[in-house]
Amino acid sequence: MKNPTTLGEFIFECQAEYPEATGALTSIFSSLRLAAKIVHREINKAGLVDITGAAGEINAQGEAQQKLDVFANEKFKAALAARGVTCGIASEEEDHYVFFDEGHNLNAEYVVLMDPLDGSSNIDVNVSVGTIFSIYRRISPVGEPVTMDDFLQPGRNQVAAGYIIYGSSTMMVYTTGNGVNGFTYDPSVGVFYLSHPNMQTPTTGTIYSINEGGYERFPAGVKQYIKYCQENDPSTHRPYSSRYIGSLVSDFHRNLIKGGIYMYPTSTSYPQGKLRLLYECNPIAFLAEQAGGKAIAGVSTRILDIKPEKLHQRVPFLVGSPEMIDKVEEFLRVFG
Ligand code: AHG
Ligand code: MN
Ligand code: MN
Asked: Is the CB of 247 under 6 A from ligand 1?
């Protein structure tokens, strides 16, 4: 039997197809892979730390124990800064973008945007969480400090995007605009192996995912679509199953594989939507489209075409199997 392909080998083989490639993107992926392993290790200790660190909140180095989303942010930021191939980052955990001005980073061509720990409220209860990342080529001249415009690019400009899911196993799923591939982590060897080559989402599915507690506050079109999902019609496999973890990465990952729709619409509680365009919606939308799915913010509004206006911008988000997105769009068109 052929040895399984590792993530490192896969990236190297892909790079070899582009003789003009500088290897910078490969280095960024090495950084992401390293930080992912460290976060994996830490997440797997969640719960244990409370026992072993019960004496107080100060760890052996005399530092206060950090929340895991802050920990993840620091690890990904440090790993990216260390390789000299990223000129700056923006993160859900940072108020402003961060400019890397040390060493080769000043001449680097790429910026990385991330949600270091998505679904972090699930950590305490041993439910899957993730890291989401998005990579763009800078617009500002190389050698100068990055600018806000480097980060406020429409999602269709993404060079690569992906997520790490820390679940029953840890996986990295990513795209560079040439399909989606998934790699499963073997912690005993410290290596990600290609386990899900060329991931394609089913054209339709039987899962709908939404925080239905907000039902009364949703737009009429979303309410009507939820009712449609619940109707009894065996010819279209309805009623659909309702599945909602409350961690976007995990909900999306399941629907990507099984077929389904995920919705975080506007509501009276979140008039702009809740999810962040730059750190959550754009990377997930890029992956969805690359896997044959669709991602919209509303009627005729493709997520990847939205021109961001600010770093932490929120948008309504509907993503999933293409026929299901078309259907909900019909409801939005008719009922608003
Ligand atoms: P984060 O942990 O990065 O703040 O993201 C939480 C997000 C997303 O992962 C999830 O789908 C959504 O918030 C859940 O929100 P509700 O609890 O409002 O359903
Ligand atoms: Mn998140
Ligand atoms: Mn987060």
From this structure: yes
69, part of any domain: yes
CA dist 243 and 261 (Å) reads 10
> Where residue 314 sits, what CATH number does that domain have?
3.40.190.80
Whose atoms come closest to the Cα of 250: which ligand? 1
Give pLDDT, residue 63.
Answer: 59
With a 6 Å cutoff on the Cβ, whether 248 touches ligand 1 is: yes
Looking at the chain, list the stretches that DSSP marks H as alpha helix, in order from N- to C-terminal side: 7-16, 24-43, 48-52, 68-82, 148-151, 220-230, 248-258, 282-290, 322-335
- 152 and 213 co-located in one domain: no
- Identify which of 172, 134, 241 has the alpha carbon closest to the alpha carbon of residue 33: 172
Residue 254 lies in a domain: yes
pLDDT on residue 45: 87
Residue 63: what are its φ and ψ, rounded to 5°? -95, 145
Which residue of 70, 92, 166, 248 sits with most ligand 1 atoms within 8 Å of its CB, as the best mutation to test the pocket? 248
Claim to verify: residue 161 and residue 264 sit in the same structural domain: no
CA of 225 to the centre of ligand 1 (A): 21
**Cα of 117 from ligand 2 centre, angstroms:** 7
CA distance 336 to 330: 10
* Helix orientation angle between 24-43 and 7-16, rounded to the nearest 10 degrees: 170
pLDDT in tens, 201-215: 999 999 999 999 999
Domains: count for the chain = 2
Helix (H, G, I), strand (E, B), or coil: what is residue 148?
A: helix
Ligand 1 atom nearest residue 279's Cα: 3
pTM above 0.90, yes or no: yes
Structure confidence by residue, pLDDT tens digits, 4-59: 999 999 999 988 888 778 899 999 999 999 999 999 999 998 777 666 555 555 55
